[in-house]
Amino acid sequence: MNKNLIPDHMIPSFDRLDLEDLRQRNIDTILLDIDNTLVGYKCIEPTPMVEEWIASLRNEGFKVGIVSNATRKRTEIFCKNLGVVYIHRAAKPLRFGIRKALIQLDSRPEHTAFLGDQIFTDMVCANKTGCYSILVKQISKDESLYCKFKRIFEQKIRKKMEEKSASEGV
Ligand SMILES: [Mg+2]
User: Fold this and answer.
1) Which of 1, 62, 68, 124 to pair with 54, CA 20 to 30 A apart?
2) From the CA of 46, how far away is ligand 1's center (Å)?
3) 7 C-alpha vs ligand 1 centroid, how far in Å?
4) Ligand 1 is a single-atom ion; what residues have CB below 5 A from it?
5) What CA–CA distance (Å, rounded) separates 144 from 131?
6) Third-level CATH fold of 9-141
7) What are the CA-CA distances from residue 5 to residues 20, 140, 155 (Å)?
């Protein structure tokens, strides 16, 4: 299997991100996908929980950016009050969106974690750019057929990862 498809780590939801673990990995920057990572597709604005969590990341000293494939309008409205760098229409798995965010944040990929819900866009993009790739469980089940199709393959990879971490006793 192509190694770019394999996330470095998996968590059940964004708020389970282990900041201490990231620090130990010398990570100072956290990039985030929006749709199905922080909120469901139909949620136009961040929930209070998302806002508080992002504020807590910044309070803990992390640089935070949003890298989304969504439209300018969707991304701008979502990020309006978050006070973070954001990139819309990032065209993940292409690398330019993440690279643009890293330039704006003055960050290095090896010191950056990327959090997303899709293997074929988020994880491939994070891995190709050399970020620490973290897969979260998708929030909404309300997805297009194309996404549902991709999920079948993603399930296989998730299963493999789970077996791997079980065998390592993590
Ligand atoms: Mg997503």
Assistant:
1) 124
2) 14
3) 14
4) 33, 35-36, 117
5) 28
6) Rossmann fold (3.40.50)
7) 25, 21, 12
For residues 157 and 75, which has the higher predicted lDDT (pLDDT)? 75
Are 134 and 11 in contact by the 8 Å Cβ rule? The answer is yes
Identify the pLDDT of residue 145. Answer: 57
CA of 122 relative to ligand 1 center, distance in Å: 7
Place of tokens 């897969």: 135
Q: Where are the domains of the chain?
A: 9-141
Q: What is the dihedral of CA 34, 161, 6, 115, to 10 degrees?
A: 20
> Ligand 1 mean position to 138 CA, how many Å?
7
For 83-115, what is each residue's pLDDT tens digit? Answer: 999 999 999 999 999 999 999 999 999 999 999
- pLDDT at residue 39, rounded to an integer: 93
Residues, the chain, total?
170
Question: Separation of 143 CA from ligand 1 center, angstroms?
Answer: 10
The candidate with the shortest Cα–Cα distance to 46, out of 58, 63, 34, is 34
170 versus 114: the higher-pLDDT residue is: 114
Q: What is the DSSP letter of 168?
A: T
- Quote the pTM value: 0.85
